[in-house]
Amino acid sequence: MTKPNKNIVEQIAAERIERLFSLANEEFGKNPVHSHAWIQLAFRIATRNRVRIPKQFKQAYCKKCHSFLVEGKNKKTTKKNGIAEIHCGECDSRFKRKLTA
After folding, report:
1. Angle at 75 between CA 24 and CA 92, to 5 degrees
2. Among residues 18, 21, 31, 76, which is most buried (max CB within 10 A)?
3. pTM
């Protein structure tokens, strides 16, 4: 049995991560617990396959508790000098991210 091509595995993992983030976004209004589960699954896929979470989703989750964050619901963002300070309403932690263009 041969090993699957590494690029194909990484591509499939990246597609699944993107799909899980979109599911979390859709599900957050109805049931935030399900969106948290989708994010946990995306992190497991990224870790298992050694794939990075895409840059567009970096500000969509908490760095500490890995909860899905939505502005105005459980996330507060302060922007200053090209850096966004994000406050998680779930675990009450603060972390900084570079603003994406």
Report:
1. 110
2. 21
3. 0.82
Would you tell me how many other CB atoms lie within 10 Å of the CB of residue 95? 13
Q: pLDDT, tens digit, for every residue of 18-44?
A: 999 999 999 998 998 999 999 999 999
> 16's torsion region: left (phi>0), alpha (psi -120 to 50) or beta?
alpha
Per the listing, tokens 């970096």 go with 58
Terminal CA-CA length for the chain: 44
Return the structure tokens found at 17.
């991560």
Render pLDDT for 35-86 as a digit per residue (tens, 0 to 9): 999 999 999 999 999 999 988 888 889 889 989 999 989 999 999 998 999 9
Domain ranges of the chain: 6-98
Q: What kind of fold does domain 6-98 have according to CATH? A: 1.20.5
- Which residues, 6 or more positions from 96, have their beta carbon under 8 angstroms from its beta carbon? 83, 84, 85, 86
